[in-house]
């Protein structure tokens, strides 16, 4: 049974969430309060996981996380509004130690049930995560390899897919990569308003140029392209290989979808010159696309269980034979550098 503590400034919201969780035998609500009261109780109650409202009048979600994490680093799921302001605060919360977020209900019964179901799934997925390891990794830098091997790599493009836990994983990766790499295309499951800010944050800590992808964009060396929230991203046809951005139907329940990106690469002449990484996340998005890439000669990697926040997507890929090598998050920057060092300048 997972012991949950609910923090929200609205008493009615707390009571409704608590009643929904208590009806499920997998959960035990061990506390429900404002952030101020939680500061007095949570260290004694010691729950397995906390749900935390992003925006509260007494103490903000970020302030609470900054107080909590040095004392009691446990999994936290944020409840956020999907607005431009809400996006910024939620990304700040993820940077401060929260693992994931759920969109607040819009007031309708249907959307409330959607919120509760998503919250239950993410509580179950994240409850056992070792947050101390993540916080330690966030402060860590790897020793970059600069030795010239004297041999050209066949890798001309890199693709990465991630979901729950991916924001922290991606920041760790790009912060520890050199600037002279082939184009990198990334799908991180995120809604609109979030991805442009996320790209800006990654850009501020990386040697690479990191931007939100746009329709018709040319890919170039040293650049990273983040799929826009609520939009699929594909690699276009040769010889230009320009990025395609569209809002076709969701795939595996997601838009953007990792499978959409990976499958577009598998159809490309660049497939055998691609290195693809499927990172932490719930569900199975990206697994079939990674399999398609593997069958076309791409180098395919799945994040290992021990460093994944949620070993869902990479597990699915491993079980269907899509993963040529399981790899720890700590090893990914060096692996990319090793694969891509001295890559040729032309991608057309």
UniProtKB/TrEMBL annotation:
PROSITE patterns listed in its UniProt record: CHEB (PS50122), RESPONSE_REGULATORY (PS50110)
One term under GO cellular component: cytoplasm
Modified residues (4-aspartylphosphate): 53
EC number: 3.1.1.61, 3.5.1.44
Record-annotated active site: 163, 189, 285
Pfam families noted in UniProt: CheB_methylest, Response_reg
Domain Response regulatory: 3-119
Molecular function (Gene Ontology), one example: phosphorelay response regulator activity
Subcellular location, record wording: Cytoplasm
InterPro entries from the UniProt entry: CheB-like (IPR008248), CheB_C (IPR035909), CheY-like_superfamily (IPR011006), Sig_transdc_resp-reg_Me-estase (IPR000673), Sig_transdc_resp-reg_receiver (IPR001789)
UniProt keyword Lipid metabolism, yes or no: no
Enzyme class per UniProt: hydrolase
SUPFAM superfamilies linked: CheY-like, Methylesterase CheB, C-terminal domain
SMART domains: REC (SM00448)
Keywords carried by this UniProt record: Chemotaxis, Cytoplasm, Hydrolase, Methyltransferase, Phosphoprotein, Transferase
Reported modifications of this chain: Phosphorylated by CheA. Phosphorylation of the N-terminal regulatory domain activates the methylesterase activity.
Catalytic activity, as annotated: L-glutaminyl-[protein] + H2O = L-glutamyl-[protein] + NH4(+); [protein]-L-glutamate 5-O-methyl ester + H2O = L-glutamyl-[protein] + methanol + H(+)
Family under the similarity heading: Belongs to the CheB family.
Record comment regarding domains: Contains a C-terminal catalytic domain, and an N-terminal region which modulates catalytic activity.
Role of this protein: Involved in chemotaxis. Part of a chemotaxis signal transduction system that modulates chemotaxis in response to various stimuli. Catalyzes the demethylation of specific methylglutamate residues introduced into the chemoreceptors (methyl-accepting chemotaxis proteins or MCP) by CheR. Also mediates the irreversible deamidation of specific glutamine residues to glutamic acid.
PANTHER family (alphabetical): PROTEIN-GLUTAMATE METHYLESTERASE/PROTEIN-GLUTAMINE GLUTAMINASE, PROTEIN-GLUTAMATE METHYLESTERASE_PROTEIN-GLUTAMINE GLUTAMINASE
Protein name, per record: Protein-glutamate methylesterase/protein-glutamine glutaminase
Organism placement in taxonomy: Bacteria, Pseudomonadati, Spirochaetota, Spirochaetia, Leptospirales
Gene designation per UniProt: cheB
């Amino acid at each position: 049974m997972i012991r949950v503590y609910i923090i929200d400034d609205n008493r009615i919201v707390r009571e409704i969430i608590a009643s929904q969780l208590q009806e499920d035998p997998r959960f035990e609500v061990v506390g429900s309060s404002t952030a101020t009261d939680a500061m007095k109780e949570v260290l004694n109650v010691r729950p397995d996981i906390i749900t935390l409202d992003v925006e509260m009048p007494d103490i903000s979600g970020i302030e609470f996380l900054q107080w909590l994490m040095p004392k009691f680093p446990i999994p936290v799921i944020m409840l956020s509004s999907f607005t431009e302001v809400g996006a910024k605060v939620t990304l700040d919360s993820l940077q401060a130690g929260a693992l994931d977020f759920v969109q607040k209900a819009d007031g309708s019964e249907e959307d409330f049930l959607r919120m509760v179901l998503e919250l239950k799934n993410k509580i179950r997925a994240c409850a056992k995560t070792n947050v101390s390891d993540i916080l330690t990794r966030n402060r860590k830098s790897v020793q970059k390899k600069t030795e010239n091997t004297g041999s050209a790599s066949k890798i001309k493009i890199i693709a990465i897919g991630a979901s729950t836990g991916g924001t922290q994983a991606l920041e760790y990766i790009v912060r520890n990569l050199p600037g002279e790499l082939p184009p990198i295309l990334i799908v991180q499951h995120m809604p609109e308003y979030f991805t442009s800010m996320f790209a800006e944050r990654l850009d501020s800590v990386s040697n690479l140029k990191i931007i939100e992808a746009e329709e018709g964009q040319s890919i170039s060396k040293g650049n990273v392209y983040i799929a826009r929230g609520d939009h699929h991203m594909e690699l276009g046809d040769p010889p230009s290989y320009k990025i395609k951005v569209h809002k076709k139907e969701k795939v595996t329940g997601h838009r953007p979808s990792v499978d959409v990106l990976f499958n577009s690469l598998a159809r490309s002449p660049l497939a055998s010159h691609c290195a693809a990484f499927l990172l932490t996340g719930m569900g199975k998005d990206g697994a079939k696309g990674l399999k398609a890439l593997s069958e076309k000669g791409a180098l395919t990697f799945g994040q290992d269980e021990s460093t994944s926040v949620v070993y869902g997507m990479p597990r699915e890929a491993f079980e269907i034979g899509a993963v040529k090598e399981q790899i720890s998050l700590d090893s990914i920057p060096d692996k990319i550098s090793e694969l891509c060092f001295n890559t040729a300048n032309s991608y057309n």
